[in-house]
From TrEMBL:
It comes from the Bacteria. This is Mor transcription activator domain-containing protein. InterPro entries: c-mor_Regulatory_Protein (IPR052411), Homeodomain-like_sf (IPR009057), YraL-like (IPR049739). SUPFAM superfamilies: Homeodomain-like (SSF46689).
Length: 86
């Protein structure tokens, strides 16, 4: 994220209006279409698939400890995944 001077891109009237609220402060303006974490890289999909596989293994009888070892996670993290209602 880079900083852009408002005076270079916004009309003077809008700058004066903004100064009523945030005079001299840095202002963040978010994008119109925000993408959730991992949607572009596929990371979110990979984690969702891993969690689904873990839930299936748990339903087939694997213990929390076995799943923690298999997926290289702490037992507490495995519990959060397999016991969540989704």
């Amino acid at each position: 994220m880079s900083y852009v001077k408002a005076i270079n891109i916004l009309p003077e009237e809008l700058i004066k209006e903004l100064q009523k609220y945030v005079d001299g402060e840095t202002l963040y303006i978010p994008k119109k279409h925000y993408q959730k974490w991992g949607t572009r890289s596929g990371g979110r999909k990979a984690i969702d698939e891993r969690n689904a596989s873990m839930k299936d293994d748990f339903k087939r009888g694997k213990t929390i400890g076995q799943l923690a070892d298999d997926y290289f996670l702490s037992p507490e993290t495995v519990k959060k995944i397999v016991y969540v209602k989704k």
